[in-house]
Every structure is written in structure tokens, then in C-alpha cells.
Amino acid sequence: MTFDLILFYVFGAILLGAALAMISVRNPVHAALFLVLAFFAAAAIWLLAEAEFLAIVLVLVYVGAVMVLFLFVVMMLDINLARLREGFAEFLPAGLVVAAAMATVLTLVITRFIVMDAPERADADYSNTEALGAVLYTEYVYPFEIAAVILLVAIIAAIALTMRRRPDTKYIDPTRQIRVRRQDRVRLVSMPSSPEASEKDRSE
Length: 204
Hints:
By secondary structure, the protein is an all-alpha fold. It has ten helices and no strands. The longest helix is centred in the middle third of the chain and has 28 residues, at 88-115. The chain is elongated. It starts with a helix and ends with a helix.
């Protein structure tokens, strides 16, 4: 057993354990942290597979940006865990069917790659980033563009749903702020500074 294979089994066990812990813990903050650990283990496995670009993107984008946003939202929201578990038994059969389908697909993929011969290692000057870009923008250019359009539609839909006018929302009209005058906001009132000055003003 080579050292690379030992590292693969170690990081694979960490990835599997982190994924199981992520879906089994009750605290959502702990679940997000276990997901971060799973991302790091997956990035290490991609490094062993000589996919350095994908590993770096996984760490920078998902761990450095997406998971930080998830943790911020989870820690800022007051999540009622009892209410979230109310429909667990109702949706359990559908969840088991989806889990069985995913397990079947993963088993077929794993068994297919087990019987295949291991690919030869690339040369030292080989760039997987260049190869990924060449395949992505030639053979898979149409699926890539379709995915980009779907993401754009999702962004526009999210903005449209959150920007709707609500009667109970307080907002500021910039045009009214620009047209404001000093006489409308400030009123100068002549008031005495002391009781002696007030009596002097009345005598005069």
C-alpha cells in the first residue's frame, strides 16, 4: 500500500465521518462546521487526484465565502429546532427513497471506476486548469452557458422576491430628501438664556 493510498483512505474516512456528523448533529452551527471539515477533506482528495485548481476553488469559494455566509446567517437567526423537526416523520419516506436512489447511483459509479485501470500520472508541466478550461469551453460550452443562465434567472428571481413593496416597511425617498428646505426642518425660536434676561426683556 502506497503513501498516496493511505492518505486517500484517511481523508476519505474524515470526509465520510464529517458528512455523517453534519446530518446527525442537532446544533446547526456544529453542522456547518462539520460541512467545512468535509470540504477540506474533499479538497485534500482532489489534491491527491492532481486536481489542484478544483481543490483551491473549493477551499476559497465554499469554505472562504459560502460557509462564512452560512455561519453568519445561522448564528444571526433564531432557529426554532422543535418546529423544524415537526415534519420529519411526514417526509421520511420520500427522504429514504431519495437516499436509496443516490446510494444506487454512487455504487454504480464507484464499481465502474473500480474495474477501470488507473490513469497514468501527468507530466510535471501539465496544467489541469488549462485542460479543464479547454474541455469546459469546447465540449461542454452549451451546458455551461445553460447553467449560467439558470443561475442568472435565480438571482433575478431572488431580487424580485425580496424587493417587493411592503406596507409595513419604512423606507426613505431620496427625491424628497433632495427637495427639502431649511425652513421646513429648522425653526429658530428666540428664548432667554436666564431668568434675569427674561425679566429685563419684559421690562423693556
